[in-house]
């Protein structure tokens, strides 16, 4: 049985910095966000199904998904969102499982911002939360994405509350300082995970 670590954290928490660090140590990282984009590429069954359910207006002229058009439909209706999730979530889950099983590293990491919300933590043996205060999350996301504060607050509000994630996670790394401090904490955990993977 392969040791699979679930890695999560809210927007601006430093989740990406952490996953890049693990990749530099030779650990295979399967990113749920990347998989979510892959399953709706032209030619994928999920895209055909989305087109069948929502119509041709969700396609761009080149056959790719028109994310903005789909987002507009889904934001206006809970039913539409549920229909979309019923198409994409099983396809995403299946692809994640295939990629986790194919990984050739001492252990493998599933990175997902919605690890607990979408029950993807069930695919893992152990979970790691990269945590930061809401103030710091907002500050970092504004600097990084150039989004306005209100947009970022909405994203944070839509995610599971920090306290709830803290209760669910097996390990928590507080990323409230310099990147070197984050990497020191990750190095300790990496050694533990290597032992567990043996």
Ends apart, CA distance between termini: 10 Å
Radius of gyration: 18 Å
* Strand residue percentage: 5-15%
Quickly give the CATH architecture of the largest domain.
3-Layer(aba) Sandwich
Tell me the number of helical segments per DSSP (H or I, 4 or more residues long): 9
Percent range for helical residues?
Answer: 55-70%
Classification by helices and strands: alpha/beta
CATH topology of the largest domain: Rossmann fold
User: So what's the overall shape?
Assistant: globular
CATH homology-level superfamily of the largest domain = P-loop containing nucleotide triphosphate hydrolases
Domain unit count: 2
Low-pLDDT segments, ≥5 res = none
Oligomer: single chain
Q: What is the N-to-C succession of helices and strands?
A: EHEHHHHEEHHHEH
Q: Mean pLDDT, as a whole number?
A: 94
CATH class call of the largest domain: Alpha Beta
Largest beta-sheet details: 5 strands, parallel
Instruction: Walk across the major sheet and give the strand order.
Output: 2-3-1-4-5
How many β strands by DSSP? 5
